[in-house]
Inverse folding.
């Protein structure tokens, strides 16, 4: 999985929800499951010898040669298969080869065609080799441009640069996935941009519900200069993201269409700038999840938690600081375990009185939601009678939560719950 | 898809289902020629776009944005790669198979057969491995049949004949011995998720795509690895729920039929073994088989003390409500069943709510149906030994704890931070309970302490220590100050 440093000031759930807090540029990740890059080879079609390896890194690696002889027919295939991406597992060598063969036609080439393929060989033990697929294709596109413009691959004077570029790619992609600069001989510098992306970037980000609260998961300082660089919609929306306002509230404040705001936030969510969390309400019910067991065993997380959940400095009327007790682990852990289905937050606070133990319930829930020890339960009304054409009855099919219904009809959720309950047409399920 | 290589042909000769590309960019060319410009004449560098000279099978357009000819070229495996798992991705479409090559007895030609499966994007490694195994099994069965009947030479000729026709796939299907069994197998896998059949009543073929089979039965899909994990964690106190009627095959072990007669949701594996007289080990083997062939799911046997709550399963409630209405009529609504278990409630409470016997039965059946579709999940009580709340009222015994008990506590696996408190609890208990009772409770408590680390639930602790539920609950009640409880589903099922 992607290693992300989590910030305590954020909530999160699911792959899109959490992010790092290093304050680095967006999308700056380190990976611990990125498959190991075993080698890169540049193959060409030699008019006398057929498919050959022009360069390979790491140099002198027999496995690269063996891989080439195994997949020769696919690395330099028939012309009809050019510009299709291929990946082939080779069990005997325990590797996968990612290929993107290309042919360029021009009368300057011997026989009028230059065929090449920059193939990447990755370890087979990880199923995340798809992370390299866009890079193989992008690399081929860069090489096409360089070849068309400078004869970068065919001109002998650039051969040291080609090898140097491959070595740089091999080292940088293996370690951090980065920008590579290529110095052409005549002082021209070409910059190649590569980046390994997490697997879930390939998926559609989830739809944004209007009652969700967006929250920054990166410590980004919103300077005027940074805001100026954004599109007009983001310029308006981003300053309103404070971890309290829902998508709908932001839209109402800005007099914008909710779907536009949702779209902008979905984009920010996709790039892991924000996470989406349910509103913290004393009306909500939170339950401990099985992940709380991991927390029990993780001393580092326990220390982080104890530091975070304590009641922040409180001042008396005369300005003096009121001393607050420091939370202890057994209290925090027992409090988490005591959050269960059927107990609303307000009732839970009355029962357990966390503040008497120096624990801020809001921060306790925030920490739990962020680390996924806690889950918010939603109430789903289920209609017991045939819905007919009634849109409200139709919506009560187990997919629409009470919060969502309340938001749709601009009614307080408690009032909505009471109204539905009174009608005797609904059952309520918590999930 | 079936790739066949023989003396006269080296092509994909069968494709099922044959879906045409959604937006064909070009109509199939009757007599195609190379449409690219002559590369040597190109004045400006251009990227090679060449339509290969193809005919017959090679011309057939596929939904994979390639012709069969191109696909055939791509999947053609070198001899060194044959008889091994094949996994290739072409433009985000994954193809898996198991190329098989062999020489016909007395001949000198190498035949190659590859049954290829195009899998959905993002399918896991286990599904791919399952289809590779199926490909191998099919290929092996063909090789066996070839050894008996020698049909491949004819197939090769028919493929060559069909290659010259307008619709080669259809022509070949008409004549071929292989195509129809392959289509049957594909349809069976799509329909049921598993295959168990005999090729011409001779070669046995069995295969299960677990996730697909479970989806078809409206059960939350699980992959092979998850099912194997469940099998590994199976204990004698578990039970099973049959997902549909299971009929043993004629050649099945007779004890399977016997066990199935004694199989019910309120019986554990141990109970089934006792009732049927089949050794526990054999019951385990049969149940493992039923789980791996997605005929059953593992549960805890139904009992009145079981606590259930609604599961966060992705089952569409509206569709399930219709299904339940057809099964249970109007006596009890699905939503009423689900709503009852929010907050969590015991089975006893749900079933005994009404005293009409018939309705009790219906309610029990409803719970079984909800469990079968994993819309309910059972919650188990897990325990942690931990210091009490900082503001808890602690016992203040007037007398010291006896030496014998103190030594028991000292030697136990209890964390040091709670030992003093446990001593005080024992001393406080002695003020109103006889020594023997307190000693017994302490003995049991000390015995189960190693299981109170959040990894074992009550049923497991009971089983591992051979204790009665009431006894153990009484002990936990006595030492509740140093115990934190947590209700959650068991990882074995969820």
């Amino acid at each position: 999985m992607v290693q992300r440093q989590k910030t305590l000031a954020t909530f999160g759930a699911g792959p899109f929800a959490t992010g790092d807090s290093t304050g680095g540029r967006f999308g700056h990740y380190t990976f611990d499951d990125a498959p190991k890059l075993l080698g890169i080879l540049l193959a060409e079609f030699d008019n006398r010898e057929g498919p050959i390896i022009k360069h390979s890194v790491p140099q002198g690696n027999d496995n690269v040669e063996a891989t080439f002889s195994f997949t020769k027919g696919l690395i330099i295939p028939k012309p009809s298969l050019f510009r299709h991406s291929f990946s082939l597992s080779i069990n005997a060598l325990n590797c996968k080869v990612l290929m993107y063969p290309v042919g360029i036609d021009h009368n300057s080439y011997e026989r009028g065609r230059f065929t090449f393929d920059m193939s990447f060989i990755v370890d087979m033990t990880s199923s995340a080799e798809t992370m390299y697929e866009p890079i193989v294709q992008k690399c081929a596109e860069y090489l096409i441009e360089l070849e068309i413009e400078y004869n970068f691959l065919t001109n002998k004077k650039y051969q040291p640069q080609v090898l140097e570029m491959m070595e740089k790619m091999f080292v940088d992609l293996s370690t951090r996935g980065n920008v590579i600069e290529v110095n052409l001989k005549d002082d021209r510098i070409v910059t190649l941009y590569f980046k390994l992306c997490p697997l879930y970037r390939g998926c559609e980000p989830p739809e944004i519900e209007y009652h969700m609260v967006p929250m920054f998961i990166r410590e980004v300082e919103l300077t005027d200069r940074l805001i100026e660089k954004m599109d007009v919609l983001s310029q308006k929306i981003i300053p309103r993201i404070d971890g309290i306002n829902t998508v709908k509230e932001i839209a109402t404040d800005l007099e914008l269409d909710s779907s536009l705001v949702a779209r902008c936030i979905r984009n920010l969510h996709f790039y892991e700038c924000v996470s989406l969390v349910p509103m913290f309400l004393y009306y909500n019910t939170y339950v401990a999840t099985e992940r709380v067991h991991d927390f029990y065993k993780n001393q580092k997380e326990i220390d982080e938690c104890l530091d975070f959940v304590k009641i922040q400095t409180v001042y008396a009327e005369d300005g003096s600081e009121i001393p607050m007790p420091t939370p202890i682990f057994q209290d925090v852990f027992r409090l988490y375990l005591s959050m269960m289905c059927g107990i609303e937050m307000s009732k839970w606070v009355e029962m357990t009185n966390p503040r008497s133990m120096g624990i801020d319930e809001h921060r306790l829930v925030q920490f739990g939601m962020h680390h996924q020890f806690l889950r918010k339960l939603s109430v789903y009304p289920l209609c017991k009678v045939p819905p007919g054409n009634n849109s409200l009855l139709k919506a009560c099919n187990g997919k629409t939560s009470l919060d969502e219904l309340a938001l749709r009809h601009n009614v307080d959720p408690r009032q909505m719950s009471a109204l539905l309950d009174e009608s005797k047409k609904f059952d309520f399920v918590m999930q | 898809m079936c790739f066949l290589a023989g003396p006269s042909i080296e092509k994909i000769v069968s494709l099922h289902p044959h879906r045409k590309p959604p937006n064909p960019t070009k109509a199939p060319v009757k007599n195609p020629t190379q449409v690219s410009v002559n590369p040597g004449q190109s004045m400006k560098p251009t990227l090679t776009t060449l339509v290969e000279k193809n005919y017959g099978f090679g011309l057939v357009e596929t939904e994979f944005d390639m012709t069969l000819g191109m696909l055939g070229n791509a999947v053609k495996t070198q001899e060194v790669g044959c008889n091994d798992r094949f996994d290739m991705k072409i433009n985000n479409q994954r193809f898996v198979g198991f190329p098989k090559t062999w020489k016909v007895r007395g001949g000198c030609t190498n035949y190659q057969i590859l049954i290829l499966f195009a899998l959905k994007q993002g399918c896991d490694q286990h599904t791919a491995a399952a289809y590779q195994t199926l490909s191998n099994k099919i290929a092996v069965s063909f090789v066996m049949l070839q050894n008996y009947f020698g049909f491949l030479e004819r197939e090769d000729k028919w493929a060559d004949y069909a290659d010259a026709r307008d619709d080669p796939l259809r022509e070949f299907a008409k004549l071929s011995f292989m195509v129809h069994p392959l289509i049957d197998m594909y349809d069976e896998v799509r329909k049921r998720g598993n295959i168990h059949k005999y090729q011409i009543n001779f070669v046995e073929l069995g295969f299960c795509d677990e996730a697909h089979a479970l989806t078809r039965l409206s059960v939350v899909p699980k992959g092979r690895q998850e099912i194997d994990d469940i099998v590994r964690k199976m204990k004698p106190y578990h039970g099973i729920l049959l997902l549909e009627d299971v009929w043993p095959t004629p050649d099945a072990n007779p004890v399977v039929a016997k066990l199935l007669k004694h199989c019910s949701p309120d019986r554990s594996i141990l109970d089934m073994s006792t009732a049927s007289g089949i050794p526990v080990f054999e019951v385990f083997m049969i149940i493992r088989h039923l789980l791996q062939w997605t005929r059953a799911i593992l549960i805890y046997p139904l009992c009145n003390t079981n606590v259930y709550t609604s599961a966060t399963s992705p089952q569409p409630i509206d569709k399930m409500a219709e299904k339940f209405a057809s099964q249970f009529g109007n006596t009890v609504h699905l939503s009423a069943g689900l709503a009852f278990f929010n907050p969590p409630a015991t089975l006893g409470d749900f079933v005994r709510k009404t005293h009409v016997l018939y309705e009790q039965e219906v309610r029990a059946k409803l719970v079984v149906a909800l469990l079968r579709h994993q819309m309910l999940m059972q919650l188990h009580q897990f325990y942690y030994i931990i210091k009490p709340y900082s503001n808890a009222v602690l016992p203040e015994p007037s007398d010291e704890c006896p030496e014998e008990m103190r030594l028991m506590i000292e030697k136990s696996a209890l964390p040091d931070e709670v030992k003093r408190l446990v001593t005080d609890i024992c001393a406080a208990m002695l003020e109103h309970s006889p020594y023997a009772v307190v000693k017994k409770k302490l003995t049991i408590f000390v015995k189960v302490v190693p299981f109170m680390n959040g990894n074992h639930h009550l049923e497991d602790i009971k089983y591992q220590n051979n204790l009665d539920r009431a006894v153990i609950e009484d002990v936990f009640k006595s030492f509740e100050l140093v115990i934190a409880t947590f209700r959650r589903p068991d990882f074995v099922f969820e």
Q: What stands out?
A: The radius of gyration of chain B is 32 Å. Chain B has a mean pLDDT of 81. The first helix of chain B runs from residue 68 to 75. Chain B has four domains: 2-25+51-184, 235-299, 307-374, 382-488.
